[in-house]
Amino acid sequence: MKRSLRHTVRDVSPDDAAPLKDLQLNSSLPAQTKTGVILDDLPSSSRNARTPRSPVKSLSPPLHPSPPTAVPTKNMLPRRRRDELKPGPPRKDPHEQQTLRTFSDPDLALAQSFSLLSSDDWEKKIEGLMFIRRLAQHHSDVLGSRRHDVCIVLIQEVQNLRSAVSRMAVVSLRELYSSLQKGMDQEVEATAKVLLHKAAESNAFIRQDVDTALDSMVQNCTPIRSMNALLAGGLCHLNAAVRKCTALHLATLVEKIGAGRLLSGAKDVIARIIPAVSKLAQDASQETRRLGRRMLLFLSSHHDFDKMVEKCIPAKDLATIRNTVLTLKSKERTKVSRNAKI
Question: Per residue in 138-158, pLDDT tens?
Fold first, then answer.
């Protein structure tokens, strides 16, 4: 074999000597020309023209690496059809108003709810709060007998650091206001205070649930009790969001009671509502100030409003309140005249 190879090498032309030498040193490398160009990179026509066929080259042909497998990228992924990108039906809020099932034994369910709420497991707490909601909807008489104990537990859970538990407790208070109504009068001040403080939360869903619960209190509980609870819980709060929430629900309550009934009632009510409305009308928050001035304009329709303002407002703030009322009445008259022309 070696002798035949030597005879073959003697017959090779000088032009092919260099490629043959490279081939003998490393059979895996492709043959190169004198100019250093790889023959495999040249077109097939050029290779056939320049390089004669040799039996030695056919013994160990150059190795061609397999092309790399392409890794799919985002641009190579198949595009979704438009109908696949359409959003599905909106998810139902588990905290919204819904009809829950009744209990076959409500007394036992109430005992179980207290047991679940005393647990450290937040999922068991939510289950216990769901029991309270079901009792409020279908067994208000059973729940009313333990109203104070239930409210104490709910106040603690409203302050829970886990938002899911806190939100469910707020919704449970809404259910209590709706089902027990005036039966919640004795618990209004304590529950409204914790709800108003929760209005400062950054979670928008909790703030929305707080507004819904306070609106349920305003609509179902005794108006004067609700008014006193709002003033005690949020009038002088340092957080602007709490004062705004207080002004919003107080405005609803004042318009519901009416200026005539509100300013013709007990003197202690008048002595509280007029200074409170005047304070909100001068609040640093623009939205709270707007709500306060709306209530001030509403109460100014009473015929004895000026006399009551002189008795209830300190002398240093009296001129400011009177000027504010005059400005509001002037704007109201201008607005009415414009609407009449239209």
Answer: 999 998 889 999 999 999 999
